[in-house]
Amino acid sequence: MNALAEELNRTLEGSCAGRLLSEVGTRMYYPKGILTQSAEAGERAKRFNATIGMAFSKGQPMALDAVKDHLPGLTNREAVAYAPTAGVLATREAWRVELLRKNPSLAGAGFSLPVVVPGLTAGISYLADMFVNDGDPIVVADMYWPNYKLIMEVRKSARLVPYTFFSEAGGFNIADFSRAVAEAARQNGKAVVILNYPNNPTGYTPTLEEAEAIKKALVSVAEGGADLLVISDDAYFGLQYEEGTLRESIFTRFASAHPRILAAKVDGQTKEDYVWGFRGGFITFASQGMTEAGYDALVKKLLGVIRSSVSNSAAPTQNILAKAMADPRYLPQKREYSAMLERRYRKVKEFLATHEAPTGLKALPFNSGYFMCFECSGYTAEELRLKLLNERGIGVIAIQDTWLRVAFSSVDEENLDQLYSEIYETARSMGTV
Ligand SMILES: Cc1ncc(COP(=O)(O)O)c(C=O)c1O
Questions:
Q1: pTM, entire model
Q2: Cβ-Cβ contacts under 8 Å for 390 (sequence gap 6 or more)
């Protein structure tokens, strides 16, 4: 094993983070190679800096006008130079400030400075590199974002262990969640749990009481002696439309919950800031009692994962995000867009409340985010999807044959009545063919 990896492992020894590391995570380190030497030169090579693989002219990175003209608000350095492996410092610091603004309960809890990753997908995949071995159980809801399967099962050879998302009463199924986590922990001595609120595909965010119950369930498993990695996939953070639902990230509940719980927050500008193609996201760690040296070691492991895959994330979008966060129009326009999505949500709720549902099509609970789901019975969601597509030119998503996911986020408010009327009509015709 590399001596640097051994040093990081020694720093993490005795912590849940150290015990949770996968084989890759244990081997991983951030080399003191080109990047460290280059950073030293950046500070001390006052005459000539011939370290890094970029082309400079008169102290500035060379940028083609044909490129620069499309990025008029950025300097050459911001537009075309490499970003550090951990991300542009100003962007990371601004995101940290935003994290505290959006999650006041984090004040006082220790957490690592967010590290930039190229999108939330990459964030989850990198956490899997660090903490998931072949065959490990990954606890997810039965209604989960299908990419978890690709990342955890296909890529990492782990096993998704699902629990039933909704209880009979139509809320979060805390009993089945607790069962799945306890079972996974019993089998493996540790467990990885992915929590995603607002959820894709259901559009459901737990109530405050449910969030407390989720916390209690995980703390009780940790008290039983298992180490837990609790991943909060906060892709749709901030789009809650009802009182009494969890408005802060569930990460805040786990940041200092128990020394056997390592909380990892995966979030980013993708949906929060309406820049899906920017390919930016962040990973932030928190664990009760973790020292600064511990956070530093964990982040260095993560940097090794980044350096060995994408090396660093795109710089222009990070610099644009830092400038956007400092712009006085940033928050008001985000509020405006979120209100627009909320109006669509209310329109859908109103339609469902005022129209009788066809047999075999049941709207499931939703209170947040981009989506809602129908549960199909008597025919598959895929059959209904294809009929909507082929006969009406309407595109929706079938999830695992049972659920039809409708992204009301992407349809204008004035068209939602028509869309849902046609879904109902088509579902009615399914019963009669
Ligand atoms: C639940 C969830 N997590 C993560 C992502 C991925 O985000 P990104 O586009 O930043 O990779 C999505 C995107 O659809 C998502 O729905």
A1: 0.96
A2: none
